[in-house]
């Protein structure tokens, strides 16, 4: 006689430790909601209010990055979007790259790209200086005092 397991019986015993897939799933939902607010706020301020896209130039970005509020706003948008996108790409690789070596290479490439872009984007946001010291006066924007 053959015994049939109950339908909800786990195929293998539960693993101990952190369930990274569950937390990745939760992160995708939470970051998606926050990104909707951040992105539509960004579009509203930069494109809808004011003069639209023609107002966006070097001086506009310099003015925005002169305030900590916009630095933090853009930093949150950058970090959440890159981690959200990287997690989505990791999920696609896990779903479609069945060869273990290819899967591992692709996942590490995604992690590396996300880390490099987060570091570079963060550096741009916090080190942006529209009026660098020692620059030639003819290379400075018109709103910079002559140094």
TrEMBL record:
Its cofactor is heme. The keyword Metal-binding applies. Its main location: membrane. CDD domains: SQR_TypeA_SdhD_like. SUPFAM superfamilies: Fumarate reductase respiratory complex transmembrane subunits. Pathway: Carbohydrate metabolism; tricarboxylic acid cycle. Membrane-anchoring subunit of succinate dehydrogenase (SDH). This is Succinate dehydrogenase hydrophobic membrane anchor subunit.
